[in-house]
UniProtKB/TrEMBL annotation:
Biological processes, Gene Ontology terms: fructose 1,6-bisphosphate metabolic process; fructose 6-phosphate metabolic process; fructose metabolic process; gluconeogenesis; sucrose biosynthetic process
Protein name (Swiss-Prot/TrEMBL): Fructose-1,6-bisphosphatase class 1
Lineage: superkingdom: Bacteria
Organism lineage string: Bacteria, Pseudomonadati, Pseudomonadota, Alphaproteobacteria, Rhodobacterales
HAMAP family noted in UniProt: FBPase_class1
The Fructose-1-6-bisphosphatase class I N-terminal domain, residue ranges: 19-178
Gene Ontology cellular component annotations, sorted alphabetically: cytosol
UniProt-listed Enzyme Commission number(s): 3.1.3.11
Domain (Fructose-1-6-bisphosphatase class 1 C-terminal): residue spans on this chain: 184-316
Organism listed in the record: Aquicoccus porphyridii
Length: 321
């Protein structure tokens, strides 16, 4: 098990969840150290198989999953649902909580030394393992991510604002560096994988066309575009300086509901964004008012400042033509 991680300003974390958050921080600190070693830690980005969803698993995906699972077993986590495991695992039968995790998000970036992350969501456990996760996302009691970037940081909410704790690599401590993050509504930036343009629905194409038209189009302002292909990095940029993110459903087989998973990607990011004053929808309806029908179910995902996210919805209300 990872050596305990000290969290400075831990009084901002509910007492019952502190051992869980502390374990998450300890493992994240160890994952950050491995990532910082890059090729010196071995072939972290090498393909080692496929998860049950058909995604290729990288060595670091599997390593991170094993590290989190081993450490959380010693806490109050009863049920553990991971992107890398087909079924829910029972860790501590006497535990009170259910934790869903994307142990390593943005794994196509491992080999190119670009930011990746870990995303997690916590519910109070109920007796049925799957039912602990297949419920309204608004019932989450905690949601967050760790970004492994030039700096490593934990961004977390317990339903009372979105906080950032930054890892001091020298002391190994996570220190509160932002008490209440707010999503700014003044940044003209959008994030979408534009290579899928031909597969998008007409409303999504129309929205992006109008952004691209800049001052010569109906929006009457110029936009900038960013795409890291790491949801955590994208969420961190939007929480830090604004902009809107879209991963819509598209016409590719298997992408009817986009690419991102409800339980351990979209629900916790939506919780963070709402708690920072922003909005997160499936293009239309709030993510937090929805629940997944299956553990690995996908959902279209749009988030950012309310005004930008609402504008995306108005395009979806337009007739297809
Ligand atoms: O390669 P695409 O289609 O642009 O998708 C990028 C998206 O896929 C993801 O990498 C999926 O997450 P995993 O790496 O955990 O599978 C997101 O982080 C990112 O937003
Ligand atoms: Mg992911
Ligand atoms: Mg992943």
């Amino acid at each position: 098990m990872a050596e305990a991680a000290e969290i400075i300003s831990s009084d901002r974390i509910p007492a019952g969840l502190l051992p869980v958050v502390s374990a998450l921080c300890a493992v994240s600190r160890d994952v950050a150290r491995i990532i910082a070693k890059g090729p010196l830690a071995g072939a972290l980005g090498a393909g080692v198989g496929e998860n049950t969803d058909g995604d290729q698993q990288k060595a670091l995906d599997v390593m991170a999953d094993e590290m989190f699972m081993a450490s959380l077993g010693a806490t109050d986590i009863r049920f553990y649902a991971s992107e890398e495991q087909e079924h829910v695992e029972e860790l501590n039968p006497a535990g009170r909580y259910a934790l869903a995790i994307d142990p390593l998000d943005g794994s196509s970036n491992i080999d190119v030394n670009v930011s990746v992350g870990t995303i997690f969501s916590i519910f109070e456990a109920v007796d049925d393992a799957e039912a602990s996760f297949l419920r309204k996302a608004r019932e989450q009691i905690a949601g967050g991510y760790v970004i492994y970037g030039p700096a490593t940081a934990l961004v977390v909410t317990f339903g009372d604002g979105t906080m950032m704790f930054t890892l001091d690599p020298e002391s190994g401590r996570f220190i509160l560096t932002e008490d209440r993050m707010r999503v700014r509504d003044t940044t003209n930036e959008f994030a979408i994988n534009a290579s899928n343009y031909r597969h998008w629905s007409k409303p999504v194409r129309a929205y992006i066309d109008d952004c691209l038209a800049g001052v010569t189009g109906p929006r009457d302002r110029n936009y900038n575009m960013r795409w890291v292909a790491s949801l955590v990095a994208e969420a961190h940029r939007i929480l830090s300086r604004g902009g809107v993110f879209l991963y819509p459903g598209d016409a590719r087989p298997g992408y009817e509901n986009g690419r991102l998973r409800m339980v351990y990607e979209c629900a916790p990011i939506a919780f963070l964004i709402e708690q920072a004053g922003g909005k997160a929808t499936d293009g239309h309806d709030p993510i937090l008012d929805q629940g997944a029908g299956a553990l690995h179910a996908r959902t279209p995902f749009v988030f950012g400042p309310s005004e930008m996210v609402d504008r995306v919805a108005t395009y979806h209300d337009l007739p297809e033509q």
